[in-house]
Specification:
Blueprint: E1 2-6, E2 23-27, H1 33-40, E3 45-48, E4 51-55, E5 72-73, E6 76-77, E7 94-98, E8 101-104, E9 108-113, E10 119-125, E11 130-131, E12 138-139, E13 142-145, E14 148-150, E15 155-158, E16 172-177, E17 183-190, E18 197-204, E19 211-218, E20 225-227, E21 229-236, E22 241-244, E23 251-253, E24 260-262, H2 275-281, E25 298-302, E26 309-314, E27 319-324, E28 332-337, H3 342-351, E29 358-365, E30 374-376, E31 381-391, E32 399-400, E33 404-409, E34 414-420, E35 424-433, E36 436-445, E37 451-455, E38 465-470, E39 476-480, H4 505-517, H5 526-535, H6 540-552, H7 556-570, H8 581-592, H9 596-606, H10 610-626, H11 630-640, H12 648-660, H13 664-677, H14 682-688, H15 696-708, H16 712-724, H17 734-747, H18 751-763, H19 774-786, H20 791-803, H21 807-819, H22 825-837, H23 842-855, H24 860-872, H25 877-884, H26 888-891, H27 895-907, H28 911-920, H29 932-943, E40 980-981
Parallel strand pairs: 4-12
Antiparallel strand pairs: 1-2, 3-8, 4-7, 5-6, 5-40, 8-9, 9-10, 10-11, 13-14, 15-21, 16-17, 17-18, 18-19, 19-31, 20-30, 21-29, 22-26, 23-24, 23-25, 25-28, 26-27, 27-31, 28-29, 32-33, 33-34, 34-37, 35-36, 35-38, 38-39
Helix pairs in contact: 4-5, 5-6, 6-7, 6-8, 7-8, 8-9, 8-10, 9-10, 10-11, 10-12, 11-12, 12-13, 13-14, 15-16, 15-17, 16-17, 17-18, 17-19, 19-20, 20-21, 21-22, 22-23, 23-24, 25-27, 27-28, 27-29, 28-29
């Protein structure tokens, strides 16, 4: 790849309200010689070749676990543990070679970046020379992502929440060719939270301008999991860019449907902007389908459309794109923009070196709002497909299919302009009314070349009028007819009342379920569920919801009691209930308690219910396999295959059982078929002896799957690989791998090897080792049973329990590790959080932070957190300044601590020094955190007796011209519908009721 210096504004209209310096524009390499012949034949090709891209590297992730329970992020929980949190981005760019996969056919050119979540970075229409996806010519992250860095441009695939946890993490990728000239780039993502699996395949076909995305979401865990999926598509914008949605869209909604306005003409204030008032002074200023009319950061999601398409159109370039997907699965259609105002321009500068503003035209699957989560059952796989294609100069699409799009002019004579995604010879374009053909023409039509048909008729005349395009064989490609919609206004969400104000137990249960399913960051379901049990202690639904919560936290004894309470009522009169979830959950809990025979009975009973048959059957077969009951386990699998949905875990278990039964040929055939269908599945590859990823987190999960199937030798081999894999940004699991291996050896009766593995764990590097999940909990508990004085195990299990909500126990483990003599800044800091938040022991918390700072005096995060604690403990500003002044260079290394320091300088009468800092230092804002640097700037100006002015660009912020939706009320309470309030809320007092 070569980079050529060019002015990007040569490629399109000038960007509104800003001018940008020339910069390096990506020039994409030609296809290799061995693929060029296939490309000339019209086939699609793909190859792997690095791209050298100007890159601003993010800083090293924090070594401290972030327990951000009440962080509001994208309208739901901003919890980031067990991911490490990144808080800085370099101000200096370097040239970096990025792993890139290029796809190309006659019409389209794409680039996929596996090191950045498998995103599409470039989408280029060769027929028009237009980047239909926003091409960011730099990798310039801002602190927008869930775990920190995020980049704009291209297409980001967000799951299981937004923005995708793995957005700045690598994925595995492979290239797949079909005999018909189709090529697919498969990317495999390992969810670092719930350990689910997602694959997306970016596909180009021969003779087609369609970008096809095939997606497989697989829940490889034993628990039901919530998720959402949004494709985040960026489009470069300016005054002449218009987003289009189906003509039956009359209203759009804000996040969580907290607000509503008409569309495309906003009929009420929205995001603080009085659009009807603006329209009084400027015609069409209320049209929010035009980027130029939206001055502030704004989201809107369509409501109640029955159509399958939407997209964006660049009127200056005469080009755009269409997205199409079946509405039955993919109802979500959304636009987001930073807005045209100064704040939007500030964010543009944070995210690019000169490519200007963009909008996001986002497609949601199994979701139509944010946050809006659906469910995946244990072992369930969901598959779906999305389509995008560029359109030439037809205007905005009024109807579209994967085959064609049409724009219909109705201001004068009716004219239909068509665009297709494949070449068609002798296609028939026509305009009809009822059974009468008003105009028609046969035409040879190709992608990138529009065709217009006109007739002197008005669409509101007698009879139903339509414009359509058909193949020469009469197959309909696209058809438009006028849309008739109703007058009703959609519903708007409201905050649920307090538990005491809710009349029914059912409503209490459902409210708690909503808060849990949608991961509400500031309202707990417990208040509602506990209130329900006060009225009806035997309520089945609430007892099972709480049992599931207790089970996931590792509190199995409590969980079992709740399940048994639910089962007592559920089976009092009906031994065979309609829903067998209680039996399945009972089996999970009993298995964790080591009561295997009872667990197998529960799984067997759960299998009577079709909803739970697949999950229960797999769990039963897995348990039987662990006990060496191979034929029995295979019989269970035989009852599932071909009857319930595909679960790759069953394939792996069958191969293991066949090998044990001596039929290796059958086992290899099973694995080969699985690899043909899913070449990136890590467990199948491990069993087949294929090369594995070096991603330690995924390796650990493979080892656990093998262990849980009774394949202990294979599990120990993968655990050994895991323990030597390099620690990554996604976390360091090497110590946990040693503890899991110790538990396996102990179960086999090899106490010497178990002790050796525990010693390796104790000696391992613990940097960013944030254990999570029940298997890690079991391994750490087993380690402490074997050696109650293992300070490393105490330290690690404390982090796990704190993240799982068992905070008093976590604090006790941390204090025990300290008592055993462990000296570690991370341990002291964690114990300080527990002392302040849980035990309300202020003196102990302060002392522990003092010890942490002594161990790591050059750690800026520790200094920031200690200063935040000082504020909560009422320490004077002079005392805080006295502690920070000697380490000013360290203070100035963090944006948040610098802001605090500037305020302290003002209080101390040193406003001149405060102004100097703000004028000479660059800041990196984060989404939703705007305003802090502005407030400091205003305070500094006032303290220096200077008039209020706009801040320098180095502050990374600008003033909002309108008042945005409130995130936090004057009382200090977070608004129920807050979408973004990303403060690092590490210090929050908790009570027993929490």
């Amino acid at each position: 790849m070569t980079a050529e210096r060019t002015d990007v504004t040569d490629n399109g209209p000038a960007v509104r309200g800003a001018s940008y310096e020339p910069h390096e524009k990506l020039r994409l390499p030609d296809a290799p010689a061995d693929l060029d012949a296939a490309l000339r034949r019209g086939e699609a090709v793909a190859w792997r070749e690095p791209l050298t891209i100007r890159t601003y590297e993010p800083g090293e992730p924090s070594r401290y676990p972030m327990f951000l329970d009440h962080r509001v992020y994208q309208g739901s929980s901003g919890k980031v543990y067990p991911l490490a949190f990144t808080e800085s981005v370099s101000d200096e760019a370097t040239l970096r070679d990025w792993d890139a996969i290029h796809l190309e056919n006659e019409y389209i050119r794409l680039v996929v970046l596996p090191e950045l979540g498998g995103r599409i970075h470039v989408g280029y229409d060769k027929t028009t020379g237009y980047d239909f996806f926003y091409r960011n010519n730099v990798i310039k992250p801002a602190l927008v992502g869930l775990a920190g860095p995020w980049i704009s441009g291209g297409v980001e695939f967000n799951w299981p929440q937004h923005h995708r946890p793995a957005t700045y993490l690598p994925v595995e990728a492979s290239i797949e060719y079909d005999d018909d000239g189709t090529v697919t780039v498969w990317c495999h993502d390992h969810d670092p939270f719930a350990r689910m699996s997602a694959q997306h395949g970016v596909r180009l076909r021969a003779d087609s301008s369609v970008v096809e995305l095939a997606v497989r979401l697989h829940n490889r865990t034993d628990e039901r999991q919530s998720f959402l999926w949004w494709a985040n598509v960026a489009a470069a914008v300016h005054d002449d860019y218009q987003s289009f949605f189906p003509e039956d869209v009359r209203y759009v909604a804000d996040h969580a449907r907290r607000g509503l306005t008409a569309f495309p003409q906003a009929d009420r204030p929205y995001y603080g902007v009085d659009y009807p008032a603006l329209a009084q002074t400027a015609p069409d200023a209320d049209r929010i389908d035009w980027y130029k009319n939206i001055p502030v950061p704004t989201s809107y999601m369509i409501v109640d459309s029955g159509q399958d398409f939407f997209g964006g159109y660049d009127h200056a370039a005469g080009a755009g794109f269409v997205h199409w997907a079946e509405r039955r699965l993919s109802p979500g259609k959304k636009q987001w923009t930073w807005g045209t105002g100064p704040l939007g321009q500030a964010w543009d500068a944070q995210l690019t070196d000169g490519d200007g503003p963009y909008v996001e035209l986002m497609a949601g699957v199994y979701t139509d709002n944010q946050p809006d989560f659906s469910w995946l059952l244990p072992g369930e796989t969901k598959v779906f497909t999305q389509y995008w294609y560029p359109i030439p100069a037809i205007g905005t699409a009024h109807q579209a299919t994967p085959d064609a799009a049409v724009h219909v002019d109705r201001d004068g004579p009716l004219a239909a302009t068509f665009a297709v995604t494949r070449p068609h010879r002798g296609a028939l374009a026509r305009i009809v009314r009822g059974g009468e053909v008003l105009a028609s023409q046969n035409v040879d039509i190709d992608p990138g070349v529009p065709f217009r048909l006109e007739v002197d008729v008005r669409p509101d005349g007698d009879g139903a009028i339509a414009a359509e395009l058909l193949t020469s064989a009469g197959q309909l490609l696209v058809r438009w007819s006028p849309t008739v919609v109703g007058d009703g206004e959609p519903w708007v969400a409201d905050e649920p009342p307090a538990p005491a104000a809710i009349d029914s137990v059912e409503e209490l249960y459902l409210t708690g379920l909503h808060l849990s399913q949608y991961r509400h960051p500031t309202r707990s379901p417990l208040a509602y569920w506990n209130a329900g049990l006060e009225r009806d202690p035997g309520d089945v639904r609430i007892n099972l919801a709480l049992a599931d919560r207790d089970y996931r936290a590792g509190d199995h004894v409590t969980a079992l009691g709740r399940v048994e309470t639910a089962l007592a009522r559920l089976t009092r009169r009906n031994a065979n209930p309609m829903d067998a979830e209680a039996f399945y959950l009972q089996g999970l809990v009993l298995r964790r308690l080591g009561r295997i025979a009872e667990a197998e009975q529960a799984f067997g009973k759960a299998g009577w219910d079709g909803t739970w048959a697949a999950a229960a059957g797999f769990a039963l077969a897995q348990s039987l396999a662990c006990r060496g009951q191979n034929r029995a386990a295979l019989r269970v699998l035989d009852t599932l295959d071909g009857v319930v949905g595909h679960d790759v875990r069953r394939v792996a278990l069958r191969a293991i059982l066949l090998r044990r039964s001596g039929v290796d040929t059958d086992a290899e055939a099973v694995l080969l078929r699985a690899l043909e269908a899913d070449p990136l599945d890590a467990t199948i590859r491990a069993l087949a002896g294929r090369p594995l990823t070096d991603a330690a987190g995924l390796l650990l999960d493979v080892a656990l799957e093998l262990r849980n199937a009774g394949a202990l030798d294979e599990a120990l081999q993968v655990l050994e690989w895991t323990s030597t894999a390099a620690a990554a940004w996604s976390g360091n699991v090497r110590p946990i791998a040693h503890y899991v291996a110790a538990a396996v050896h102990e179960a086999r009766g090899d106490s010497a090897r178990a002790a050796e593995e525990r010693e390796r764990a104790q000696a391992a590097d613990l940097t960013r080792c944030f254990p999570f999940g029940l298997d890690a909990l079991d391994a750490l508990e087993a380690a402490l049973t074997a050696d109650p004085d293992d300070a490393v195990a105490h330290s690690l299990i404390g982090m796990l329990l704190y993240a799982h909500g068992r905070r008093p126990e976590a604090g006790a483990h941390w204090e025990r590790a300290i008592a055993l003599g462990r000296v570690d800044a991370v341990l002291f800091r964690n114990a300080a959080l527990a002392a302040y938040n849980i035990r309300h022991d202020d003196a102990r918390a302060w002392d522990l932070y003092e010890r942490a700072v002594t161990v790591a005096p050059d750690d800026a995060r520790l200094r920031y957190e200690q200063d935040q604690l000082a504020i909560r403990l009422g320490r004077t500003t002079s005392e805080r300044l006295r502690r920070l002044r000697p380490v000013e260079p360290l203070v100035l290394s963090r944006d948040d601590l610098t802001i605090e320091y500037v305020k302290l300088l003002i209080d101390a009468g040193e406003a001149g020094r405060a102004l100097e800092i703000l004028l000479t230092r660059s800041f990196h804002p984060w989404e939703g955190g705007e305003g802090q640097a502005i407030a400091a700037w205003d305070a500094v100006l006032a303290a220096n007796g200077l008039p209020q002015t706009d801040p320098p660009a180095t502050l990374g912020e600008a003033r909002l011209p309108y008042v945005p939706p409130v995130a936090r009320h004057a009382s200090g309470e977070t608004d129920y519908f807050a979408t973004s309030l990303p403060e690092l809320l590490l210090f929050a007092r908790e009570t027993a009721e929490d």
